[in-house]
Amino acid sequence: MPGGKRPSPEMEPYAKMVVVLGVDEVARYFGEQKMQPTPIAVDAGAVARGRAAAAQCATCHGPDGKGNAAMQSPSLAGQPPGFLREQMLLFKQDKRNPGTPRSRR
Question: Which one is the CATH code of 12-97: 1.10.760, 3.30.160, 1.10.3470, 1.10.10?
């Protein structure tokens, strides 16, 4: 990402595309993509534990993880598990800051 404030190996190629293609074109491309479930299978116990642990996330990202337009919170649904894991670890280390006052709580 330009500026290096939020390093992410998974997102870096897309962030660099913005420089070449432009914000509107990249946003349009991703906006047109169909969300697909992760191909990774997990056991029901892990899903239950994850749902309980994510309860606090639902406050901003909605009960189904699809975001909250009123709060400008993005969808978490369909994100790669590795990306979500990395972001949760950054939150835990107090290193995840998307740069908006609302998300600094």
Answer: 1.10.760
